[in-house]
Amino acid sequence: MNHESERYRFARIEGYIITLARLEEQFEDTAVNLEVMEAAVASQLAKENLCAPWRTSKAERAGCREGMRLAGLQFLSQYREALRDLRLNGPV
Asked: Quick one: which of 6, 50, 56, 90 has the fewest CB in 10 Å?
């Protein structure tokens, strides 16, 4: 693997982990409606500053942004799935 793609991959992983942790912390033990959740994810993704400012190359910045997007999408997907399960099965 070449050096540039390796840096992209590590930056993507960092962006993913940091963003997912931020979102999980923000909504820990909190029930919110889907619109609030979507707005929070959009806010995280719209930030001008990356979650890993030490990533300075173009490839690293792109990787970090991609990781942030993946984390937001996964977070929303898991939340939607949990809401759907709750509607179908009722509270556990």
From this structure: 90
